[in-house]
């Protein structure tokens, strides 16, 4: 009887091993996959390898933290630049994640300051995301000083709807294991771009009002003469930007008399510089009153989006408002305030338009006084 029992026991054990032995190898594979090395090609063409997915992160340089927050919020952050600890107003990514300001300072931050390797090392991150480095040498130098993988991000030349933003978000997702969230954000950006294009691409040139965007922020607040050629938000809605006559791209300061000569049908004023424009109006009301857009009540606001580089979600919300003002029939189903909240929620998980409007004024006609 004992022999029969022993034989039966052996048969059962053999069968169990045969049927379920594969499970132990699958468990090993799963464990191995978690520790597999990750290699990404960053925005200056460097191949950067991490031993595993990062669970402690720093994001330094203009706009790096913002891109990170679009993907992970405050999760995994080990430290923050001092400049991000200041006022949260105008930075929706900080308005939604105020706890970030309590993290250990890892350097002064700001566009004109270099990274601080010692302070970065003090929080022991697994990876450094940076927008400071615009060349391989400076990125390699920081990596050499810290012995921490450095991944260079970029907003490209246009920020809003620039493919470099998509690429940067995808790298953040791959390094932190947040690929599905990244796909949500990237797909949303593309859907907004395609929607704006579809609504406006077939409008005939002679049916478009001429337009101008003034008081645009560029390392600070400026007056009506601060503008952009090849302005990305006008491009998004196929607007007739009078500045494009200059053939210039990006931020420029025009001669104010040139604006009188162009005399656009509609003018948008960035609320970041609205106070500067109002003060200038008090000194020289005749100049502004000679502009057709001012005389005809065609002066409009746009929310400021440049704070330590571009708040992409605010810029896209502005683009919808610009489209609504320029071509009301093409945007008759759009309520800019509600659309703005949809955009903020898609990027940061929270309705923020009312708070932005409280701080800056929101979407509206402007009266100079």
UniProtKB/TrEMBL annotation:
Family matches, as CDD domains: HemV-2 (cd01147)
Q: Which UniProt keywords apply?
A: Signal
- Going by the entry's taxonomy, the superkingdom of the source organism is recorded as Bacteria
Q: Which Gene3D superfamilies match?
A: Nitrogenase molybdenum iron protein domain (3.40.50.1980)
- In the record, which residues are listed under signal peptide? 1-21
**InterPro entries, alphabetically?**
ABC_Transporter_SBP, ABC_transptr_periplasmic_BD
Coiled-coil ranges per the record? none
Q: Where is the Fe/B12 periplasmic-binding domain?
A: 56-330
Any one Pfam family match given in the protein's UniProt record, by short name: Peripla_BP_2
Q: Which PROSITE patterns does the record match to this protein?
A: FE_B12_PBP, PROKAR_LIPOPROTEIN
Q: Which family does it belong to?
A: Belongs to the bacterial solute-binding protein 8 family.
Q: What is this protein called?
A: Iron-dicitrate transporter substrate-binding subunit
């Amino acid at each position: 009887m004992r022999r029969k029992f022993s034989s039966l026991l052996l048969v059962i054990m053999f069968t169990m091993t045969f049927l379920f032995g594969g499970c132990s190898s699958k468990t090993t594979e799963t464990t191995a996959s978690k520790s597999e090395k990750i290699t990404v090609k960053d925005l200056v063409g460097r191949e950067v390898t991490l031993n595993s997915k990062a669970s402690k992160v720093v994001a330094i340089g203009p706009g790096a933290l913002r891109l990170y927050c679009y993907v992970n919020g405050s999760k995994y952050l080990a430290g923050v630049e001092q400049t991000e600890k200041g006022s949260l107003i105008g930075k929706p990514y900080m308005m939604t994640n105020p706890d970030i300001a309590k993290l250990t300072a890892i350097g002064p931050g700001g566009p004109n300051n270099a990274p601080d390797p010692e302070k970065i090392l003090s929080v022991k991150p697994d990876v450094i995301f940076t927008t400071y480095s615009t060349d391989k040498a400076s990125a390699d130098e920081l990596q050499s000083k810290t012995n921490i993988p450095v991944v260079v991000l970029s907003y490209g030349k246009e920020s809003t709807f620039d493919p470099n933003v998509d690429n940067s978000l995808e790298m953040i997702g791959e390094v932190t294991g947040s690929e599905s969230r990244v796909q949500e954000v990237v797909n949303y950006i593309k859907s907004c771009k395609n929607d704006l294009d579809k609504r406006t691409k077939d409008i005939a040139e002679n049916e478009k009002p001429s337009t101008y965007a003034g008081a645009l922020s560029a390392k600070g607040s400026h007056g009506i003469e601060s503008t952009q050629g090849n302005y990305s938000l006008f491009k998004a809605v196929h607007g007739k930007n009078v500045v494009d006559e200059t053939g210039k791209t990006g931020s420029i300061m025009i001669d104010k008399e040139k604006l009188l000569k162009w005399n656009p049908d509609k003018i948008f004023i960035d609320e970041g510089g609205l106070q500067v424009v109002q003060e200038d109006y008090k000194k020289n009301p005749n100049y502004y009153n000679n502009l057709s857009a001012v005389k005809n009540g065609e002066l409009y606001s746009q929310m400021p989006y440049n704070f330590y580089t571009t708040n992409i979600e605010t810029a896209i919300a502005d683009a919808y408002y610009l489209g609504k003002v320029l071509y009301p029939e093409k945007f008759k189903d759009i309520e800019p305030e509600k659309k703005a909240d949809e955009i903020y929620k898609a990027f940061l998980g929270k309705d923020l338009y009312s708070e932005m409007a409280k701080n800056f004024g929101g979407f509206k006609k402007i009266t100079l006084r």
